[in-house]
């Protein structure tokens, strides 16, 4: 299957590396970064691409843009991993619309377009007989979307709840283990690269809320906006609160929850037993799916990282490549 | 999609109940239990079937056998959930062979045929252009097989390890929590219906080993027999060993492991930290998949139960019904 990659940062290069190293049946025919692009409908050598990008900072010629590639390259699936503004969802949203309109499958790692425009994009995909896949948008390497769409098919999901943000989980783990204050733990997370210079998006629960909105709209057919999520972050949590919890063999985690029966989305710090399945450590994510037939199924794994994101993208591509007709 | 069900015990009836209650697109055209059977190529009312079985102990007429149904009914997929001897794999094995030879998809919950004859059966399925699915054979409701085949596609699995037997896990949980001896905990497990009158199959690690053989052969392309698994059960574990572990915040669990790089399969009680992800309680199962791209992904859930098994069967059926061409 021929793929065009938009965005050639660490995720894009990770995908190229995987295509180079293993027998996926995937062929890269076009790549664009923010400054350049290249097209070869017979297939581009992925390692040559990675080298060129490392040596020159460019992946191709300056005149070849993402839009040009979407409209002119030969590809079956667009891999859309551009750096995108989470608020406006651009430029990702425009690229996805254009590719779907041209009857091409799309795989994206960008949360913005899926959280904001899922219904419109899915409709566009259906009209054009192609697929829109977005496993990488929620919980990184954990195949939560695939599990909900396929592995637990036939089940009714009553509730889904868990840890959707690794930065917050790291801070809470360190506050509990080392009796750090919130500020000390945040500083440590920043030094280790787990938190951004401006950590608002993570610590105020917005990132977790966006992931809930994606699952609510894409999997449960709701029509939610970020404003519909009741959000409390961890930024005003005191070390005293954690110490009190610890005394009773409890701890605090930032839990995101979708109540599918009531249609309620919520992100908040919650006190839970230390031996609870969801009490994972450091930057891990963990999600429990509460179903009517299979009971509670919990998935735990790395919720972020370039290679983990590339892994989710590749599994989406292989699914498009191998499974046809009638499936979401 | 039309399905024929062989075996109308609690799993078979659970499947019929699900078909009756929700919009699966599945139509039951034939059913057989060990004494009777019925065929209606226009579709059988699932609730009427369940009532008939409850009232008369039969699901149809005495002359209609499983073999007759396989050869004469109209169906796209055979649901093979008969009570089957784990040693000989019969009658399941014969039914599966016959249905695949007739160009019908097969979904089974029986471990025997998949553990013993996977390569032969897969070959037969491929030759006839149909699918053989067996999600229910390993860890009940946990979609471990689907996760390995699809959700983590593109990943190389280095190691896979976890808790594959709920009976042993219950006994070990109770020994640790209540300081019971092995015999006391086993007695309790029996009273609660978690252990058979003859618990050998579970407590000696054979059940866990069979599940490893299934994964090794079906997912990792090995050619293993139960004799190839290094097995130590929990039946000679002392409460002293558990108490010693508990003193250091450790505990003991029966861990099954496939080392995919070395081709080694092993089941044994292991000492692990009490806060380890795999330390789940009571009859739960938990499996960690150690991959090169996605890192470690852990799945936790109910490893047994009629409705959980029915859930796995239904997801296999919906996958066959919705996804075509080229996928395993």
TrEMBL record, chains A, B:
NADP(+) binds at residues 7-12. Keywords: Amino-acid biosynthesis, Methionine biosynthesis, NADP, Oxidoreductase, Threonine biosynthesis. Coiled coil: none annotated. It is an enzyme of class 1 (oxidoreductase). Pfam families: Homoserine_dh (PF00742), NAD_binding_3 (PF03447). GO terms for biological process: methionine biosynthetic process; threonine biosynthetic process. L-homoserine binds at residue 196. NADPH binds at residue 111. Residues 143-318 form the Homoserine dehydrogenase catalytic domain. GO terms for molecular function: homoserine dehydrogenase activity; NADP binding. Its EC number is 1.1.1.3. Residues 7-135 form the Aspartate/homoserine dehydrogenase NAD-binding domain. The active site is at residue 211. Pathway: Amino-acid biosynthesis; L-threonine biosynthesis; L-threonine from L-aspartate: step 3/5; Amino-acid biosynthesis; L-methionine biosynthesis via de novo pathway; L-homoserine from L-aspartate: step 3/3. Belongs to the homoserine dehydrogenase family. This is Homoserine dehydrogenase.
């Amino acid at each position: 299957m021929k793929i065009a990659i938009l965005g050639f940062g660490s995720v894009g290069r990770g995908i190229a590396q995987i295509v180079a190293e293993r027998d996926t049946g995937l062929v890269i025919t076009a790549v664009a970064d923010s400054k350049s692009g290249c097209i070869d409908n017979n297939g581009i050598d992925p390692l040559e691409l990675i080298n060129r990008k490392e040596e020159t900072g460019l992946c191709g010629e300056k005149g070849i843009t993402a839009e040009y590639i979407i409209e002119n390259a030969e590809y079956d699936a667009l891999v859309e991993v551009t750096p995108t503004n989470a608020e406006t969802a651009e430029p990702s949203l425009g690229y996805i619309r254009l590719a779907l309109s041209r009857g091409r499958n799309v795989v994206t790692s960008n949360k913005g377009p899926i959280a904001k425009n899922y219904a419109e994009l899915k409709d566009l995909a259906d009209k054009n007989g192609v697929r829109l896949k977005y496993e990488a948008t929620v919980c990184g390497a954990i195949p939560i979307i695939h599990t909900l769409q396929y592995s637990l098919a036939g089940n009714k999901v009553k509730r889904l709840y868990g840890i959707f943000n690794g930065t917050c989980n790291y801070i809470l783990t360190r506050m509990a283990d080392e009796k750090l204050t919130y500020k000390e733990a945040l500083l440590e997370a920043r030094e280790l690269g787990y938190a951004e210079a401006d950590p608002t998006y993570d610590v105020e629960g917005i990132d977790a809320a966006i992931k809930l909105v994606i699952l609510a709209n894409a999997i449960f057919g709701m029509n939610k906006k970020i404003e519909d999520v009741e959000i409390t972050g961890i930024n005003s949590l005191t070390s005293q609160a954690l110490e009190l919890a610890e005394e009773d063999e409890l701890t605090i985690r930032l839990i995101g929850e979708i109540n599918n029966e009531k249609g309620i989305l919520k992100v908040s710090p919650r006190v839970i037993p230390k031996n609870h399945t969801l009490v994972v450590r450091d930057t891990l994510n963990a999600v429990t799916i509460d179903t009517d037939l299979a009971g509670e199924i919990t998935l735990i794994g790395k919720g972020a990282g370039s290679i983990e994101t590339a892994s989710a993208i590749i599994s989406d591509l292989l699914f498009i490549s191998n499974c046809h007709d009638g499936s979401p």
